[in-house]
Amino acid sequence: MTGTPTRPLADLRISPIGLGGNVFGWTADEATSFDVLDAYVDAGGNLVDTADGYSYWAPGNSGGESETVIGSWLASRPVRDRIVLATKVSTKPDRSGLSADNIGLALEESLSRLRTDVVDIYYAHFDDESVPLEETVAAFEDARRAGKIRHVGLSNYTPERIRQWFAIADSQGSARPIVLQPHYNLLHRDDVEGPGLRGQVAAELGMGLMPYFALAAGFLTGKYRRGEPVDGDRAGMVSDYQRPECYDVVDTVVQVAADHGVEPAAVALSWLRDRPGVTAPLASARNLRQLAPIVDALSLELSEEETRALTRVSDAARF
C-alpha cells in the first residue's frame, strides 16, 4: 500500500498508527520481527516505537533486546530516512532513572543498539522525582543540541509534572516536548479525557498524543468472551475488564468489525486514532497475523454512527 495519509507532529510526518516494539526480542524472534517491520513499512506505516528497557522482564533478557532487533533491521534495509524512530529512557535495570549522567550513557547505548546516529523522538519513560527536573530537562536539551535526538517526548507523566517540565524548558531556553504517551483506549479514558487531565494539558501545550495499551492488553481484540475463564500471559492485565460493561464494548467492536470485514482490533485502533488530539495510537504485533488489523487501521474509516455507538458503550464502561 502506498499513499497512506500522515499526520503532522512538529516537523515530522507520522503514520496514523504506530508500531510498538515491546515484543521484538521477546515474543517475536529476530526473523519474525523483521517480517513484521517489513510488512508494516510496506503498508505505509512509518512510526516505530521502542524503549531501552524492552524486554528486561523476560527470562534471560536484560533490556535493550528490542532496540537491538530494530537496529539490525535498520542496518539491513535502506529505510532509515523513511522511519520516525522513537525510544525511551529510565526503565532499563542498569540504566534506570533520569539523572543527567544516566541519560547520557543510556542514549549512547541506545544509539549503538539501534545502529543510528539520531533518535527522532526520545522519551522520558517514567518520571523520576529523585532527580531535580531541571537536571533532566537540561540533559535532554544537551542531547538535542548535540544532534543525537530530534525531539523530546514524555510518557506516564502527570499533568502537573508536564506543566513543570514546560515551565523549566521555557526558563532554560530548552526545546519543549512535542508528544505525550499515555495509557488510553476504549476502556481506559478517565486519566486522559476531561478538564485538567492529560489530554487537555497536551492540547494546551501543543503536544500530540501517542497512546499505548491501545487494545487494552488484548481485551479489545475480542479474544476474551463473556462468561469464559481468562488465562494466558496477560490474564492479570485484563482482570479489571471482567465486567459486563466492558464486554458490551467488545461486543460492539466485534459487530462493527464484522460489518467492515476486518478484525476487532482494527476498529478499536481506528476509534482511538480519531479521538481529539491523538496523533497515532501504538500497537504491537508478534507475527504477521497480529499485524493485519494494525495495517487495516491505517486506513479504516468508521461512520459517524459507528463512532457514536462505540463511544456510547465506552462511556458506560470507562475508568
What's a quick, concise take on this entry?
The protein has 319 residues and is α/β, with parallel strands linked by helices. 39% of the residues lie in helices and 12% in strands.
**Can you summarize the main beta sheet?**
8 strands, parallel
Helix content: 25-40%
H-E order: EEEHEHEHEHEHEHEHHEHH
Number of strands: 10
Quote the beta fraction: 5-15%
Unreliable segments of 5+ consecutive residues: none
| Spatial order of the strands forming the largest sheet | 9-8-7-6-5-4-3-10
Walk me through what this model shows.
This protein is an alpha/beta fold and 319 residues long. Helices cover 39% and strands 12% of the residues. It contains ten helices and ten strands. The protein has helices at 30-42, 65-76, 100-114, 133-145, 159-172, 198-205, 244-260, 264-273, 288-297, 304-317; strands at residues 7-9, 12-14, 18-20, 47-49, 84-89, 119-124, 149-155, 179-181, 208-209, 282-283. The strands form two sheets. The protein has an eight-stranded parallel β-sheet, with helices on one face. A two-stranded antiparallel ribbon has the order 1-2. Strand 8 (179-181), helix 6 and strand 9 form a beta-alpha-beta unit. The protein starts with 6 loop residues before the first strand and ends with a helix. The mean pLDDT is 96. It comes from Actinomyces naeslundii.
